[in-house]
Amino acid sequence: MKKKAAPVLAIVLLIVIVAGIGFLTRVIKKYTPSSEVMSSQEYFGLDHEGEAAIVAGSEILPYKGKILNEVAYVDYQAVKEVLNDYFYWDSENNTMLYTMPTDVVQIPAGSNSYTADGKTQSLNYNIVLIDGTETYIALDFVKQYTDISYETFHDPDRIVINNEWGDMTVASIRKAGKVRNLGGIKSPILREVEKNEVVRILEPMEDWTKILTQDGYIGYIKNDRLVKERTETRISDFVAPEYTNIQKDYKINLVWHQTTSMDANYNIIYDIANVKKVNTISPTWFSIASNDGTLDSLALADYVDTAHSNHMEVWPLVDNFSENIDFTAVMNSTSARNKIENQLIAAAIEYSFDGINVDFENISEDAADGYIQFMRELSVMCRKNGIVLSVDVPVPMDFTAHYNRKALGEVCDYLMIMGYDEHYAGSEEAGTVASLSFEEEGIQNTLQEVAAEKVVSGIPFYTRLWCTTTNEDGTTTVTSEAMGMNQAQQTLENNQVEASWDETTGQNYAQFNGESGELYQIWLEDTESLTRKLELIKNYDLGGVAEWKLGLEDDSVWDLIAKYIS
């Protein structure tokens, strides 16, 4: 028995030893840091020869740059989206534009010269480069107009841009260590850091800290490698240009005056007969008529004289409502934009009107950059000629973010929120044109991007009578008719219906059935609903009120509006 037990014990012992070795190997492997080094080309996403990575702030950008003869160039889209969106690429003329308060700087591609304030200046490098489908701008030139500093590095080429100023947390390296791609010893190594090297702290964690090295690596290092954590203050000496604005020393009370013919202009004296305390009138005089930027005009000097004699400034409106134009093409054409701008300023000088109201609607994302450039260019001309520039924008929604209200607020004197069309002609269901919550949310969201003194709340003098018809197949058809305040009240009287207050919308509401059983619904605009909308203007200390449109109001509204605007 003893002879048989010996081999068995040996086998068991061998198994234990092998298992122990295996376990020890796994433990060692688990706790041994990886020595794998990630390729810098891979880390920075450099796939092509001649590319340079761009690190801005604490982010590696998806765009690339170039370092040519030690001149750093950055992709135009990176400049536009991250550094300074006042740059605009004019593909029509292969020219980069930069809009200053009183001038548009022009930089032809492939040239070392640019034109500013009518003077041509030259540098010792080409400012704008085109490489295939990509456009690049020399970062030194961008820096002239932008609050940044930067450094370049090689092996691989990279451009590290600082566009963040103020307090930030930094630390020193206690002893040499490894920066890894992710937090954990198994993550690939990005690079070694040396003792006393200073890094920026991005995100401290339990065992690891996310850092930014001075040469642009964003990675993780063990906490025990960091020492002397402290706050550093980065101070900039950049002086930003001032985009001055015209601000009236009174609240704006503007009424839009829809004029569809020259003859309609002569009715102004009758149309404003009962108007009180309106200090600005905006006739719908101008419309883009063709893709080259030609405007249709209904401007009339007698109209301006009449308005001025009634203590009203005149800010004519220009729209893009013509079905004969490709608005995106117009906005993306520098020659078309300039033609519109020149016509508007020439008309302002000829007819002595005081301001311009831009009402471009249904703007696509493809037209957005050109639209903002148009407003900036027009602001230059208005600023130089003392003309008030105002713009109409819809209530902010996710799908209108490209209207770039922040940019509009920087260069325009006033921004009108069109606080109506919550439900509109063609809506699939009946509803209010402008509920109180719709109006207030529009104001609140606009104020996140635009100063209150520039914001003018647009309110409606109209409503819609909705008709819902049930079809034979059980489906419903919804139609509506726009009507002014008096017509809406008359409709209720004709149908012997009384409205009741709807707290949800902040309006009086009524419904009744037609002769064929169809359902009629209406949310009224009256003194009660307008009072609550006007209270918002006072509560948020806005720049004023604008009403759409003259002729749809009940005369009682003028004293009410004056109470809140004076």
From TrEMBL:
| InterPro entries membership | Chitinase_II/V-like_cat, Chitinase_insertion_sf, Cu_amine_oxidase-like_N, GH, Glyco_hydro18_cat, Mao_N_sf, SH3-like_bac-type
Matches recorded under PROSITE patterns: GH18_2
Superkingdom assignment: Bacteria
One Pfam family, short name:
SH3_3
Domain GH18 intervals? 250-566
Regions that span the bilayer = none
Molecular function in Gene Ontology: hydrolase activity
What keywords does the record list, in alphabetical order? Hydrolase
Q: What is this protein called?
A: Glycosyl hydrolase family 18 protein
Can you name the source organism? Muricoprocola aceti
